[in-house]
Amino acid sequence: MKKFLFVSLLALFTVAAYAQDNSQRRQGSPRQGRQMRMRFNPEQMAKMEADAINEAVGLDSLQYQLVYIMKYSDMMAMQEKMKERAEKMKKQQKDGAAPPAFDAKSREEMMKAHEEVVKARREAMNAEMKQILSPKQYKKYLKYEEQKQKNRRKMGEPRKRDKK
Fold first, then answer.
1. 151: exposed, middle or buried (C-beta count within 10 Å: 0-12, 13-18, 19+)?
2. C-alpha–C-alpha distance, residues 46 and 70, integer Å
């Protein structure tokens, strides 16, 4: 009887600890959130983005299909770049080469270069969206994108906790 009680308590604590670990993993850091997004395939991500734009702007069926195709091709390109980067890192690790050390100036230059690439990508997307959407829809789309950017910036900020 004592053994049964001991084993059942041990199992209960194990299950409780495992459940707590999973709930913490779900809340997680922004990095874990990024990993969760990467679990989706490009079709799912494109559909989610097309649905969000549809909700914000109100697309007809042809516009929806064009936005979906545009987002899908963008997701495929991003996935390909991520694969290339991962392969490059694996090769570096296999060769035993340490990642290059960057000083503050070169890191800043890299960040500026990355920002330029992102800016150019966003401008190209906006140009495509301008061709797909009506002027009224395009204004709504720009507001949607602006709100998305604000939300993205908020995600990087630490949470403010209420003091009681």
1. exposed
2. 8
How many whole angstroms separate alpha carbon 30 and alpha carbon 155? 7
Name, in order, each residue with C-beta under 8 angstroms of 72's C-beta and a sequence gap of 6 or more: 42, 43, 46
CB-CB contact of 42 with 72 (8 Å): yes
Contacts with 125 (C-beta within 8 Å, 6 or more apart), sequence order: 70, 74
Query: What are the tens digits of pLDDT across the range 45-90?
Result: 889 999 999 999 998 989 999 999 999 988 888 888 888 888 888 8
pTM: 0.61
Is residue 31 helix, strand or coil?
Answer: helix
Q: Where are the alpha helices (DSSP H) in the chain?
A: 2-27, 30-38, 42-57, 61-95, 104-132, 135-156
Phi/psi-derived region of residue 58, left when phi > 0, alpha when psi is between -120 and 50, beta in every other case: left
Q: How far is 57 from 49, CA to CA, in rounded Å?
A: 12
Q: Looking at residues 2-25, what average pLDDT do you find? A: 58
Residue 164 CA: distances (Å) to CA of 12, 157, 158, 160, 161: 33, 21, 18, 13, 9
- The per-residue pLDDT for range 94-116, each reduced to its tens digit, is 877 666 666 667 778 888 888 89
